């Protein structure tokens, strides 16, 4: 028996860093949504108790460092099934891009194991178990446009999906260290996007108003350190995107376009500049 699960990329339409907590982490308030750029996982049971991960990506660990591996161990512990599992991961989401690929793979593994072994786990039970795997996993288990708070463990689905549109994703060839970004952030000085206006615009299904409120507190530090990120955003706007913002801790920048022709124009204009350019759609839950 085989189970196939899709693991869509997440985007941060809004990311506000509220303050630095006593434990050193930063309290966040975010609006997250998902797009149809997705990894694919094929899960099957094994006669032994092994966990085997096979992937087309040369860069990923296939041992306990992989979020999929950790998820299988956590679910096996919680639901006491003995069987081993093989997961074939078809990686389409760029790694370490601010698109939550690893977290989405973990969420797909929770869903897939639930189906494969008839575990009857509720969404909330999976969310509770997922927190140690990664801060974006609870959102990825919910999977619909949400207000996300804390470090990512509080997920409040909005009453509406984000208005449907085209999303252009551009990832420069850069690796950005998330710990470094947070460590260097001047918290008292960051830009605070208006997350509540963004939430209200989405819930009112007002595309134009939504585009006015995209924003990311981490953007200005990253753009100063890596000017190419600012250049990508500016080019997207110059070529007619309705709005553009960096996703998560970057370096991917996303642009929203209502018209497909406009999205193609933005994408084509950036292809000579960056190798990794994707034109995708928003997802409906
Ligand atoms: C910024 C976000 C938003 O979706 O997205 P991505 O860029 O990963 O997509 C996430 O909160 C990224 O969380 P996560 O992916 O868990 O970050 P990690 O790499 O584990 O974080 C490493 C380090 O960054 C700092 N950190 C991280 C998250 C947070 N809310 N406050 C922090 O101060 C901590 O020092 C932590 O040890
Ligand atoms: N299944 C997985 N897919 C992607 N990355 C993974 C996975 N499991 C563990 N990782 C590790 O997690 C790190 C962050 O990956 P990813 O989720 O793609 O980034 P981001 O949080 O920026 O969106 C990578 O350095 C990678 O080695």
UniProtKB/TrEMBL annotation:
Protein name: 4-diphosphocytidyl-2-C-methyl-D-erythritol kinase
Catalytic activity as recorded in UniProt: 4-CDP-2-C-methyl-D-erythritol + ATP = 4-CDP-2-C-methyl-D-erythritol 2-phosphate + ADP + H(+)
Pathway: Isoprenoid biosynthesis; isopentenyl diphosphate biosynthesis via DXP pathway; isopentenyl diphosphate from 1-deoxy-D-xylulose 5-phosphate: step 3/6
Top-level division of the source organism's lineage: Bacteria
Species the sequence originates in: Vagococcus silagei
Role noted for this protein: Catalyzes the phosphorylation of the position 2 hydroxy group of 4-diphosphocytidyl-2C-methyl-D-erythritol.
GO molecular function annotations of the record: 4-(cytidine 5'-diphospho)-2-C-methyl-D-erythritol kinase activity; ATP binding
EC number: 2.7.1.148
All copies of domain GHMP kinase N-terminal, residue ranges: 66-143
Lineage summary: Bacteria, Bacillati, Bacillota, Bacilli, Lactobacillales
Active site (UniProt): 10, 136
PANTHER family in the record: 4-DIPHOSPHOCYTIDYL-2-C-METHYL-D-ERYTHRITOL KINASE, CHLOROPLASTIC (PTHR43527:SF2)
GO annotation, biological process: isopentenyl diphosphate biosynthetic process, methylerythritol 4-phosphate pathway; terpenoid biosynthetic process
Family from the record: Belongs to the GHMP kinase family. IspE subfamily.
Keyword ATP-binding listed: yes
Domain annotation GHMP kinase C-terminal: ranges: 201-274
